[in-house]
Amino acid sequence: MATQYTGDIAYVETTVHGYYGTPYLIYQPTGTAVLLRFEDLAVPAGALVRSVRARVRARAPGTVPLRDVAEVRAAGSATGNSTEIIVDFKGVRTIASLSRDFVAASPSMVDVDYAPWTGSSFSYPRDIATFEELATERLQLIFPAPVAPSAIADGWRATLPSPPQTIDLTVNGGRAWSGGVATPAAPDSDYDVDAEIDITGAVATAVASASVPVHVELTSTMPADLELELIDVDVLHVHEVGFPEGSLRRAERASEGRWHLDLPLAGLPDAASAQVRRLELSVSADVGTTRVLPADGPTASPDATVELVGGRSVLVRLPVALTGRFEQLDGVRLAIATDAEVELAGELRRGVEGAHVPTPGESISDVAFDPVIVPSTDGVVQWVTMTTTEPVELDGGDVWIALQPARGTALLATTDAAALAAESRTLLRWQSASGAYRSLSAPAELPPLDAMVRAIGTPPAENPVGSVTLNVGDRSDIAVVADPPAAGQQFVVDLGEQAITPDEQGLGDVPALRVDVLATAAGTYTFDRVRVFYTPNEE
Question: Same structural domain for residues 368 and 420?
């Protein structure tokens, strides 16, 4: 492939001479010749290494100062200036040409002879003006007058056209990759070797053993134009969270619902502006086998409520979309308000299979709701639990509940039906004297309203419903759902590129990370082994 060399442009005096020995002065780009490139990756011990790649590039050095590719010394035991200078390449190298940095006014190449090393001695001298490409370990330069070796090392250049045969990439001294001219490079690359190497595992191993900073090194078996760049570096710092009460925090929850778990970040430098990218914590739950769905919502409508009075049943549909995660129904949760004590009762009915419009059918024999006494709520809507006298096996169809106070009256809150899909609607019906089921009458200006109801059920063991959902920053796409056993389950909430800062959550003067918790069951939840992974804001 054609190779283009980059670098500073300098005047050089070539070994090709014109008439009367006058040298041609040309612009010739200078290259780079090194045996090693390295990068030190500043990573704190215990950090999470998610990705590190190294871009390695190598090509022939091109035209470079002799000092970069050889040891330049006086011949024999001579010190100081000498008429015989040895250029030792420390290995067989292909030398395409020798040239002089004209601007540096280094010793002239006129009347200079050279002799290549044959393996045991230098060959006969020849005029440097006739220099032709050769492979040798050393050159002897013979000058008409004494010169300083340093002047030749700094002011003369050699053109080395051969790319490196072998290059090695190491991480903390351990080889991570080896390549060379046989390694394919992209067709549009100016390098003979141009590759991206995944060193995530090697860096992670080094960090886990506290061998930090991590030293990444690219070496060549011969002088080369080497480039090393660490790219796609995704390393997260870690902060161990401690609670004021100790290493863990317990939350007693009397019902399903949503709450916040605030993780204090005391001791984390510049915690308020830290870019939090990941959260790990262990959760234990002392809960029963039943779950409540939905655990949050629906939203109460301010437009109307349904009055529950004795002598008339109000029917509420429990659609398959609500109960489909359960193998049996154990009860319901209703949003009720009352100004005086009321006793609620009810029965259950199957939906009519194949009906064009969802319709209640026959009662489920031998199953009803245990009567429940609701004390006055002073007109404030509260969730009330009604449990079945025995579990209802679900058959994949709708279930309807028929509600009727045994004494007193109550108000059943409603929700805007427009917020629900057709298959999820908790329809309201009443049964006329003729036996027909009808929609509740409402003023024409009201939107369609459904009942505010939640289902209590037992999911199948092979397809559990998570008892807790964790989220950060209310980002539903990264919420983590699981059913933590009593021994504790490790949760990982990974925000990916959607980093969040404690400042964004606006929790006041004490930096903390707020975690949204949604529980589908009442019980005790314990959080411990909490770690926050972040990048400092300046990164």
Answer: yes
Residue 309, classed as helix, strand or coil, is coil
Same-domain status, 210 and 141: no
- Among 367, 333, 330, 362, CA closest to 347: 367
Q: Same domain, yes or no, for 366 and 501?
A: no
- Structure tokens, 49: 């290494």
Long-range contacts for 114-120 (Cβ within 8 Å, ≥24 apart)?
A: 114/139, 114/140, 114/141, 114/142, 115/139, 115/140, 115/142, 116/140
- 444 in the same domain as 302: yes
d(CA 100, CA 174): 40
**Comparing C-alpha atoms, which of 33, 502, 55, 9 is closest to residue 279?**
502
- pLDDT exceeding 90 applies to what percent of the chain? 69
Domain that holds residue 67: 63-160
pLDDT at 301 over 50: yes
Examine residue 4 and state whether it is found in any structural domain, yes or no: no
Degrees (nearest 5) of the Cα angle 45, 50, 51? 110
The answer to whether 287 and 251 are in contact (CB under 8 A) is no
Examine the pLDDT at 24 and tell me if it is beyond 50: no
Alpha-carbon distance of 58 to 436, in angstroms, equals 85
Boundary (domain end) residue, out of 451, 481, 510: 451
Q: What is the mean pLDDT of residues 307-311?
A: 91
Please name the residues in contact with 421: beta carbons below 8 A apart, sequence gap of 6 or more.
321
Q: Looking at residue 529, which CATH number applies to its domain?
A: 2.60.120
Q: What is the pLDDT of residue 12?
A: 43
Q: Are strands 480-482 and 156-160 parallel, antiparallel or unpaired?
A: unpaired
> What is the C-alpha to C-alpha distance for residues 278 and 533, in angstroms, rounded to an integer?
5
Helix or strand holding residue 160 (H, E): strand 156-160
Same domain, 392 and 418: yes
- Identify the band that residue 18 occupies on the pLDDT scale cut at 50, 70 and 90: very low
Helix or strand (DSSP H, E) at 505: helix 502-505
The mean pLDDT value of the chain amounts to: 89
Read off the pLDDT of each residue in 390-395 and give the average, rounded to a whole number: 94
Same domain? For 419 and 315 the reply is yes
CB burial of residue 161 (10 Å; 0-12, 13-18, 19+) = middle
Residue 143 belongs to some domain of the structure: yes
Domain total in the chain: 4
Between CA 331 and CA 76 the distance in angstroms is 102
Q: Are residues 75 and 218 in the same domain?
A: no
DSSP 448: P
Domain edge (last residue) among 429, 451, 473? 451
**Whole-number pLDDT of residue 538:** 63
Same domain, 125 and 268: no
What is the DSSP secondary structure assignment for residue 49, as one 8-state letter? E
The count of other CB atoms within 10 Å of the CB of residue 397 is 15
Q: Does any domain span residue 116?
A: yes
Q: Which of 35-44, 181-190, 249-258 has the lowest mean pLDDT?
A: 181-190
Q: Please tell me the distance from the alpha carbon of residue 416 to that of residue 447, in angstroms, as a whole number.
A: 7
- Output the pTM of the full model: 0.74
When pLDDT is averaged across residues 240-266 and rounded to a whole number, the result is 93
In a domain, 14, yes or no: no
